[in-house]
What does this fold into?
Amino acid sequence: MGVIQLTEIERVKKISKEDFYNKYVKTQQPVVIENLTEDWPAFSKWNLDYIKKVAGEKIVPLYDDRPVSHKDGFNEAHAKMKMSDYVDLLQSKPTNYRIFLYNLMNEVPQLQNDFKWPKIGLRLVKQLPMLFFGGQNSKVFMHFDIDYSNILHFHFHGEKQCILFAPEQTPFMYKVPYSLISREDIDFENPDFEKFPALKNVKGLICNLKHGEMLYMPEGYWHYMKYITPGFSMSLRAFPRKPTNLAKAVYNVFFMRHYDNFMRKRKGQAWIDYKNKKAITNTHKYL
It folds into this structure.
């Protein structure tokens, strides 16, 4: 077993629009902004009890950390539960159940009054504030986002660890073809270098986000998240600025995911097994 090389992500208290754009967006470097949300109502209001109060009756889709199966559709939920029951579960014991990419703003419009769209030099997509919830020690597998967006990731209630890898690290990441993930049997906290030797070459970034802090994730960055405590996060997104990334996003959304779904239905588990094998052979070409 080994340890991946990780460097702490740069942190600032506050930053001007110009500095954020020039230092981080233009150079595509991650950063944590600690005090961006201090003047938001959400900073004092958003915790699990508040979500239970305003959204308790909503039925929410839940995901766990089971391996991808050919029986599952693209991003298909593993279970459903009332939000009030889910919050009770989060607060009572560790659970692998997470809420992923949930457009709670549509479901509970009053939440939109609790945050401000940051004037930070990115043209954020107003339709897409997404919420993510997780229990203590639950993990979000290593992946990058289908649309190659620039992401502002705000955390609330407790603490969450984020590990990032730049797109240039992809050759060593055991990327599974026709998908957005690394091989799911890799433990990025304690990797098996004998089985996955390419991981000795990767260089990543790490931070722990506390309540109200924001992590900027540039286009196409790999990310792995672990909830240190129960909590939830909100992502705001801006479309990719690089034409090549925009083209990749279009390919992923309109071709890749549909082709992958088609092959899962046609070939079943053999398709998943084939992709996992290819992840090894494709990556070991670079060694």
User: Anything to note?
Assistant: The CA atoms of residues 50 and 178 lie 39 Å apart. Helices lie at 17-25, 41-45, 48-55, 83-92, 104-107, 243-267, 269-284. The longest helix spans residues 243-267.
